[in-house]
Amino acid sequence: MKTTIREKIQISLKNPVLIEGLPGLGLVGRIAARYLIKQLKAEQLARLYSPHFPYYVVVNKKGHARLLRGDFYYWKNPQGNDLLLFTGDSQAQTIEGQYEIADTILNFAEKQKVKAIITLGGYRKEASNTPKVIATATDSAILTKAIEAEAILSPPGNPIVGTAGLLVGMAKFKKIPALCLLGETRGYLPDPGAAKSILLVLQKMLNLRVSLDAINKEIKKSNKILERMRQIQERRETYTKKMQQGEKNKTTYIS
Hints:
The chain has 6 helices and 11 strands. The chain has helices at residues 28-40, 95-111, 140-148, 163-171, 192-206, 213-249; strands at residues 4-7, 17-20, 43-49, 57-59, 65-67, 70-75, 83-88, 116-124, 133-137, 152-153, 178-185. By secondary structure, it is α/β, with parallel strands linked by helices.
């Protein structure tokens, strides 16, 4: 088996923009991509299978098993560029697999006559309030659009690991403008707050109208989990200090 894409339908898209969001830091890219798919009611176009995904199957509520995969969806935009959205269960587990899957995605994007690529992910940094969105690109025009949409320039030397980075770097060989948007995130828990920041930038860049009510609810749930974790950590630290103080206060006898 090799990495392959199985198309469900044939369709013609109008100046499509490909948005990629696979699992990564804080699941930021995947949360944002899946949210767009759901809110826009995007329809499935194709599926990507690869031997470079982890070697297990997913079992659903009915007991049916399936291979890990990536999914392409499309959305016809009445007021601008159509969208081609890609997300999936996992990233490739090897360096060779990362390049092979990125190349397969780019070949499919070229076939669909994609005019620009936007990849999404997380940027490991504790956000002081609202997570910022870090932007880097291979094309100055698309980067300018991102900055005008309130993203900020990536610091120099910042490595972007995985599909989000490779698609941007390799898109240059296909002469497709590419942009990467990274939301600031702690990285160790699913982060809908960072995903929302990315969605706000995408709305401005692509003239999208998407309700954020559902993701706001997810942010509230996430904040409650973080608060419980903080309280647990405080109790642990208090207990540890008491135990240490107790050890210091013990009288030691030498016989």
